[in-house]
């Protein structure tokens, strides 16, 4: 992403969080295609948690790394459940600190991706709740993008 913005590259394959949190803030990129999917992001919480679905995240302290696919996943998940961002307590953390935050009860749930998701689940006998994750995994596509000055060489359709 940085290479496209700086003009050191004309073409790149990007993940959605790059496009959403950085790319849309500039006027230099054009997405020309998308390909590939992955089911990485999940909301993880301890087995004894009362969380059963996305609506149960209301009022909860949710840990995530900002400007990543985890934040994008959480935003989409909350929106589909009718939960407003101001109805949760966002807690900024890095994926590597999610397990400690759950163990220390600094958060009620963590939104993260592999391998942290699996590591947390194994360490805590945590669960990825049915409604909260299994049915709510998002497809993380890879976007092929060009710098704006390359647009003239690519048709609009």
CATH architecture assignment of the largest domain: 3-Layer(aba) Sandwich
According to CATH, the homologous superfamily of the largest domain is: Periplasmic binding protein-like II
CATH class of the largest domain: Alpha Beta
What is the CATH topology assignment of the largest domain?
D-Maltodextrin-Binding Protein, domain 2
Radius of gyration: 18 Å
Straight-line distance between termini: 23 Å
The secondary-structure element order is: HEHEEEHEHEHHE
The unreliable regions are 130-142, 150-157
For the secondary structure, the number of strands is: 7
Q: Tell me the structural class.
A: alpha/beta
Protein model, in words:
By secondary structure, this protein is α/β, with parallel strands linked by helices. The protein has two domains: 2-35 and 140-148, no CATH class; 42-134, D-Maltodextrin-Binding Protein, domain 2 (3-Layer(aba) Sandwich). It has helices at residues 2-6, 16-21, 69-81, 98-103, 116-124, 130-134, and strands spanning 11-14, 29-35, 42-44, 61-64, 89-92, 109-112, 142-147. A four-stranded mixed β-sheet has the order 3-6-4-5, with helices on both faces. A three-stranded antiparallel β-sheet has the order 1-7-2. The longest helix is centred in the middle third of the chain and has 13 residues, at 69-81. The model is unreliable at 130-142 and 150-157 (pLDDT under 50).
């Amino acid at each position: 992403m940085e290479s496209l913005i700086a003009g050191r590259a004309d073409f790149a394959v990007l993940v959605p969080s790059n496009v959403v949190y950085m790319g849309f803030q500039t006027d230099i990129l054009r997405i020309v295609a998308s390909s590939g999917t992955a089911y990485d992001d999940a909301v993880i919480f301890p087995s004894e948690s009362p969380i059963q679905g996305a609506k149960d995240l209301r009022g909860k302290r949710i840990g995530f790394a900002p400007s990543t696919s985890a934040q994008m996943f959480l935003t989409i998940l909350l929106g589909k459940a009718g939960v407003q961002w101001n109805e949760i307590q966002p807690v900024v953390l890095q994926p590597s600190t999610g397990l400690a935050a759950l163990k220390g009860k600094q958060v009620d749930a963590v939104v993260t991706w592999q391998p942290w998701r699996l590591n947390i689940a194994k360490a805590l006998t945590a669960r990825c709740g049915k409604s909260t994750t299994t049915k709510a995994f998002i497809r993380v596509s890879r976007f092929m993008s060009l710098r704006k000055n390359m647009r003239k060489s690519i048709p609009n359709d």
